[in-house]
Amino acid sequence: MGDSGKPLFQELGLLESEYDRVVKLMGREPTDPELVMFSLMWSEHCSYKHSKPLLKGFPTTGKRVVMGPGENAGAVDVGDGLAIVFKVESHNHPSAVEPFEGAATGVGGIVRDIIAVGAKPIALLDSLRFGPLSSQRSRFLFRRAVEGIGHYGNCIGIPNVGGEVQFDDRYEDSCLVNAMCVGIVPQDRILSCAAKGIGNRLVLIGNRTGRDGIGGASVLASAELGDDDADKRPSVQVGDPFTERKLIDCCMAMSEAGLLVALQDLGAAGLTSAASEMASRGGVGLAIDLDRVPLREQGLAPGEVLVSESQERMLAIVEPGTVQAVKDMAERFELDATDIGEVTGTGELEALWRGEEVVRIPSLYLTDDVPFYDVPQDAAPANQPIDIHTVPEATDLAAAWLSLMSDPNVASKRWIFQQYDQLVGAGTVRRPGGDAGVVLIPGTNRAIAVTLDCAEWHCELDPRAGGQASVLEAARNVACTGALPIASTDCLNFANPEKGSTGWRLAEAIGGMAEALTAIDAPIVSGNVSLYNESPRGPIFPTPVVGIVGLLEDASKSVGAAFGRHGDQILLVGYGEPRLDASRQLGRCEGLPPAPDLAKEQALITLLVTAAEKGLMESAHDVSEGGFAVALAESCINGDIGADVTIPKGRRADEAMFGEGGGRVIISCHPDNVAAIQGLATGGITATVIGEVGGDDVLVTIGGSTTQVPRSQLREVWEGAIPQALEA
Amino acid sequence: MSATRVAVLRFPGTLDHESAAKAVQAVGGDPVFTHHMDTELPDGATAVVIPGGFSYGDHLRPGALASRTPILGAVKRHAADGGRVLGICNGFQILCESGLLPGVLRPNASLQFICRQADLEVADPGTPWTGGRLAGEVMSVPFKHHDGAWFGDPGESRVVLRYKGENPNGSIDKIAGITNLAGNVMGLMPHPEEACDPLLGSVDGRALFAALLA
Questions:
Q1: C-alpha distances in angstroms, B3 versus B26, B27, B74, B185, B192?
Q2: Residue A162 lies in a domain
């Protein structure tokens, strides 16, 4: 029995049927440490027991895929024998409880996933969701989460090159903090987490083990948040970025010296998860002597040592003759490296404590014999497009424009990214604030472009089309820099999947994402699922965050979002009619945004990549939140120059200015290049000259009527919005 | 003739050593990484770079622990002999903590880490560190720090670079970089190693590395 009088399995978050399954598999009652291990490994966070059956729908193979899902992170071929390694991961629930440490350790965790593959981290990104900034609690969570990401990321020396944030009531109780890390590794040095070689030693590298983060995966990450969140605070891990930096340097040096057989980070469920995954993937057993694990404090129970989520630890498989070299290397980086056990042929995870066996579990029971569930799926009734006659028309377009520019969801995110080191490593070609971050591939003249995106309102109203839109927005952003999208990662942030309304949205969104990823040939190579983002006040929007990596064959040909020269021509390129449905201008998640056209999206990507390759474009910027007028203003503000354009009215002038949807990109180019760009518009997309760059003001003419706003005024409200909201 | 050897110091938590080494190479020098527990500079090294980062995790005070490591003894002897030393960001903090440069670096007035491109104005054109630029000429170099507000008596140093326009961090007299009175030890908060490649938007930072080889 647990302290509360409830059976221990229940206190640990297991269902009675799951406990029965444990007893049946084991053929006996589990020991307390064993039960703790099952409860964590079978938690949603570690096992994906509700989502794994659906994830099989994702495309995961392709000619560039070197390593797909299932390892610590995925890897894709970028030429010259090099691979780019990347993954996005959530740290939502810890951040809702303690935003600074929750967000900081989210960064730490995803970075260790990258170094576990033997890769050197070269970029970070983050995708954030909070309640509106009018709420004091949301301002606190937002401010502290950004500080936590900055503190950790700056201190470990990985440039933060992009990200996104949205504020909405639906995230008031369940904020989202997703972090992505990208690394680089020679393909012949990619490390697997599979334990190999009976008799090889198990070496724990890095921090000492304490009581922090006990049960984090089950208590925090796999249940809805409620009013007792403060009680969960001891479950939040505490980060030490200085040790993480030493760990990065040390693991890189060990990997370069060929000292490691396999490497795995200790994340959710700590030693238990690391050891069982290494054993299961390698088809071997692991015997751990818990008394050898260096502890930060006395009095830990064996179960606590096995599941502690103390940060900045890695588990390595090392040949017996190399153990001393590993210890010497760790000492040079002022880190502990401790031999805590060995690889066995039993297929079992064994743990000794005070000389007695306290754990003996076939590792596959923990990793593969998970009770998987098919989620219930209750389709929501189809939404209808909004009747535009019911939407009051914005007649003062200048006022509406300025008001939209000062919506924190649209406004400049400089307040966030100027707190991040965007540059360290001398490889950042395109910094945050554009469509995608662009980072040099060290030792080559190529670069990668990378972004994180999600269209959660679209996902709520039409999850299949919204899943597609999330992928395509990310792909367009990457393509706007001139990079060809080559692979992707995803973090599926959803509410409680045991409810049919969420289960259906999860299944539909995955289906839509898979369709779009297949169409643009950007297979998923890694990912993460965060469920139960729900409070008594309701669920979050379905938020499938998509990270896409694109490749630029020539870094010097990357394109930015800023207008450059007076007299450059401005083209609107792409397809689709703007709609006010679920737009920032409407301000509500209502209606039915137009579904994307996959073939035209691919044609648009091809145009952008080809035009960049040929050096035809001065700038390219995706039309997204806030519609055409906001994208135009951003290109002007970032370029410190005005523009004068004329666009078609469509159904209504305010819809033409601020409507969203379709795949539309604002390109600027030298007048001599207009014809060449138009010549690339095939496959149902158009490239129309709409005006030219120049002057101090931004002018948009629709139906013979011109809206003119000084660039300085647009800049002032756009840059001031978030700092001002935080001062409130 | 072989290239000039430049010691690039590396402490636990140093982050910019690779970029600094790349910058040294870009101006024709030969960078040699130098471990913090070493008691001598590498053979033949005629100049020293102390790169940026978070040495010892900024524990105690930025630069405080690194300034007390064995390699700093060698750097002090080198500086006393007139050898050139360039400290960037955390390297500047280490130079101030070690007494090789006057003053201290306090937290930014905003109490936030700030990362952005800056225009730096040459204040004293008479040092070797700004490539012969005239007083008032501008160099575009980014900065990124939490503790970059230099505080001290400007009269104890030579002010080489100031932030042009708005003061980004509350530094006295908008000071971005100083040398000792002799002019051979230079410290600055902005990151010239991030301004040595046209792909990164500026090559103005090369002047500071070129001065190491002169």
A1: 12, 10, 22, 21, 21
A2: no
Contact at 8 Å (CB) between A278 and A194? yes
Chain B residues in contact with A156 (beta carbon < 8 A) = 15
Q: What is the DSSP letter of B14?
A: B
Residues A720, A597 within the same domain: yes
Give B93→chain A minimum CA distance, Å.
15
Q: Let me know if residue A181 belongs to a domain.
A: no
Question: Above 60 in pLDDT, residue A229?
Answer: no
pLDDT (tens digit, 9 = 90+) per residue, A677-711? 999 999 999 999 999 999 999 999 999 999 999 99
Does the residue A542 lie in any domain? no
pLDDT tens readout for residues B96-119: 999 999 999 999 999 999 999 999
**Residues of A with CB below 8 A from B54's CB?**
154-155, 157, 241-242, 245
Q: How far is A450 from chain B (nearest CA, A)?
A: 17
How far apart are the C-alpha atoms of B111 and B103, rounded to whole Å? Answer: 19
Mutate to test the interface with A, among B22, B115, B144 (most CBs of A within 10 A): B115
Q: How many CB pairs under 8 A join A and B?
A: 79
| Distance of alpha carbon A293 from alpha carbon A351, whole angstroms | 11
Tell me the sheet residues that pair with A127: A164, A178
Q: How far apart are the first and last CA of chain B?
A: 14
How close is the nearest chain B Cα to the Cα of A509, in Å? Answer: 37
The residue in chain B having the minimum alpha-carbon distance to the alpha carbon of residue A426 is B194
Residues A263 and A392 in one domain: no
The boundaries of the domain holding residue A656 are 381-407+559-728
Whether residue A602 sits in one domain with residue A639: yes
Judged by phi (left if over 0) then psi (alpha if -120 to 50, else beta), residue A709 lies in beta
Q: How many domains does chain A divide into?
A: 2
Task: Cite the active site residues of B.
Answer: 89, 191, 193
For A48-80, the DSSP string reads -TTTHHHHTTS----TTEEE-BTBSSEEEE-ST
CA distances from A510 to A345, A455, A468, A469, A504 (A): 39, 13, 9, 12, 10
Q: Which domains does chain B have, with CATH numbers?
A: 5-213 (3.40.50.880)
Q: Residue A623's closest CA among A457, A450, A438, A477?
A: A477
Q: What value of ipTM does the predicted structure carry? A: 0.95
C-beta atoms of B22 and A241 within 8 A: no
Q: Which of A155, A423, A555 is opposite residue B57, by nearest beta carbon?
A: A155
| Contact between chains at B200 and A422 (C-beta distance less than 8 A) | no
DSSP secondary structure code for residue B183 in this structure: S
Task: Report whether pLDDT(A228) > 70.
Answer: no
Contact A150 B113 (CB under 8 A): yes
Q: CA distances (Å), A588 to each of A391, A443, A591, A594, in order?
A: 11, 47, 9, 16
Could you tell me the strand order of the sheet in which A697-702 lies? Answer: A619-622, A663-669, A569-575, A686-693, A643-646, A697-702, A705-710
Helix, coil or strand: residue A243? helix
Please count the other Cβ atoms lying within 10 Å of the Cβ belonging to residue B61. Answer: 16
Above 80 in pLDDT, residue A235?
Answer: no
Which residues of A are part of the catalytic machinery? 45, 91
Q: How many CB atoms lie within 10 A of CB B182?
A: 11
Identify the pLDDT of residue A83: 98
Of the residues A421, A428, A558, the best mutation for testing chain B's interface (the one with the most B CB atoms within 10 Å of its CB) is A421
Q: Same structural domain for residues A204 and A337?
A: yes
